Amino acid sequence: MSLLKSWKFWALVAATLVWARMPWFVQNNYQLQVLFRITLFAALGLAWNLVGGYAGQLSLGHVAFFGIGAYGLALFHQIPLPLWLSLILAATVATLVAGLIGLIAFRLRGPYFTLATIAFGEVLRLTAANLDVTGGAIGLTVPSLFHGRTFWRQFYLASVALTVIAFIVNYWVSRSRFGYYLLAIREDEDTASAVGINTARSKLWSLLLSAFLTALAGALYGSAFQFIIPDSALTLEISVQIAIITMLGGAGTLLGPIVGAALLLSAQEVFKNQFRESHLLIYGVLIVVVVLFLPEGVVGGLERLFSRKPRAPGSSKPQPALGGAAQ
Amino acid sequence: MIRFLQACADGLLTGALYALIGMGLALIFGVMRIVNFAHGAFLMVGMYATYVLFDLTALNFLPVPVYNFIVGRFGEHGLNPYWGFLPAGLFMFAFGWLIYALLIQPVRNRSHFMQILMTTGIGLILTDGAQLIFHADYHQTNIDLVNRGVHLGPFGANAAEVLSFVIAVAFVVGLRAFVVRSRTGQALRAISQNPEVAPLMGINVTRIQGFSFALGTALAGVAGGLLLPRLYLFPGVGEDYTTKAFVMVVLGGMGSIEGAAFGGLVLGVTESLTSLYVGNKWALIVDFIFFLLVLSFKPSGIFGRQRA
User: Rounded to an integer, what distance in angstroms lies between the CA atom of residue A186 and that of residue B168?
Assistant: First the structure.
């Protein structure tokens, strides 16, 4: 296999092994928790990358899948079903919901698509906040997937595993015909469809894959913190956070979401102690800086610096002013 | 039946304020094709501006000598919000123009993707900046008007609501007249209809876009000032209004200013009826479902026309 001869592949394997060994180097559970969040959001960023990066569809509703993952795990386990079966079922439900959302939202373009995804996320948040079965505003206890004294370490390893899976999916997409379809849709959807790409189906598949991975991450998150409320597991903030991480690192690149998660979440840790209540301020500032000066993200910018390959999710060319409301 | 009509009337009273918010967003979208995700944050800033004018002690984040000077000069108690919304609106106009010049103009030819991110970022900065300056405390303006009632036959309403309704309607009518009649209004519609040809007709696109962004921001600010006496003020207060404004603008046809005004009234009545028949907490969900239905089946808006 040519893969085994590539130095990039072995560098990644080595990096993954080092990353997976991190728990043995940190002193306390708090640091481990920070590492867990970074890794988990790297996985979320990679999942979002399929839709937002490759297909260029700015979804701000991914918290829907995240939340369904977390709530689903809790609710299926209450029935009661076995823990791991609940996890798979929760992710499956999220994927089905993604199919429904995709069927409606992908008929819309540009800002209309983004608005629709936000609306879906908000409908779920408000519904979860008002129904009894989801515990209303008080929320639910989520069963822990791992137990024992070293449970944080196991959650961390699970998040690393999920990131690796999400990375492999991204790698496959970036090399496959399907991935090229998505890129074509990102660059110019009308032309893509004119040359015979089934744009609706490609976008839907990217969303389904993305939703499944996002739901697994959501379940892992809920399970690690053992408790979810609508304002923690279904808030618009998480959708924004996932999108920003990917954009900061570089949407449509393989390493971008990982770099973005590491940068953003460590910046957040530093600023959390500085501005207690206003930890999102750093997000806002970073978004503005990225949009103004680094539209291709850190990894995208570096790649361009070294290879001069033109690529960016629509950062370069101005779109027609009307943007086509809907098909 | 009386209850139904009363709920409709309540809805219209709120709806007029919504109309102001929606028109601001529609104006910005119409002229720039930018979906302003910071609209609710602008509303919140307008509320804080009005609140600061009402209670000057809220300025205690300023350096002590400056604070002492201001409070010494004007006393602790300032303007009634029903006057204060005017200077607050002017302030928001300048503020909007500043935001346009610094942050929006550089991205106006970029993709929607980047523009949405930009306005989202501005919204986050404003909300968390307010949190940093004013902290997460809840504020309230206790003015007499809120406790006074107005009666008309079997119907009753709060005097403050009626007053803000009258002011909001005046603004809506004034804005419409401005857009239809004035020269700037014509330029504004020209850009909205064809941004490529408008500059060839001698229209300064940057200036008009800056003006409309500022005006849209000011309308959100005015609506914020008028809402202040009826709501608790905290940094996150605007969040729901961003999404509500989207709902109105989509209902009315994206970019149509009159449409957004109707959208505001429709939304106000829908919310009020939902509260009456289903329950208060479901009002926002019904908003969103309504929104999704319109987006999926008639993205050009329920009032049909393509755009302003």
Answer: 42
Residue pair A191/A317 in contact by the 8 Å Cβ criterion:
no
The alpha carbon of residue A289 is apart from the nearest alpha carbon of chain B, in Å, by 9
Question: Which residues, in sequence order, are CB contacts of A267 under 8 Å at separation 6+?
Answer: A282, A286
| Chain B interface includes A103 (CB < 8 A) | no
ipTM, two decimals, is 0.82
Interface contacts (A, B; CB < 8 Å): 148
| Chain Cα centroid distance, residue B301 | 20
pTM of the predicted protein model? 0.85
Handedness of CA B209, B212, B216, B221 (dihedral sign): positive
| Residue to substitute from B28, B119, B120, interface A, most A β-carbons within 10 A | B120
Residues of A in Cβ contact (< 8 Å) with B104: none
Test mutation, B36, B114, B115, chain A, max A CBs within 10 A = B114
With CB atoms and an 8 Å threshold, state whether B292 touches A120.
yes
User: Domains in chain B and their CATH numbers?
Assistant: 2-297 (1.10.3470)
Tell me, yes or no, if A242 comes closer than 8 A to chain B by beta carbon. Answer: no
How would you class A31 by CB atoms within 10 Å of its CB: exposed for 0-12, middle for 13-18, buried for 19 or more? middle
Domain-wise residue ranges, chain A:
28-234
> Does the CB of A277 have a partner CB in chain B at under 8 Å?
yes
Give the closest residue to A261 by CA, choosing from A41, A34, A35: A41
Per-residue confidence in pLDDT tens, chain B, 308 aa: 888 888 888 889 889 999 999 999 999 988 888 889 999 999 999 999 999 988 887 787 888 888 888 877 777 677 888 888 999 999 999 999 999 999 999 998 888 878 888 998 999 999 989 988 888 888 888 777 777 777 777 777 788 888 888 999 999 999 989 988 898 888 888 888 887 888 888 888 889 999 999 999 999 999 999 999 888 899 888 888 888 888 888 888 777 888 888 889 989 998 899 888 888 788 888 888 888 888 877 777 666 554 43
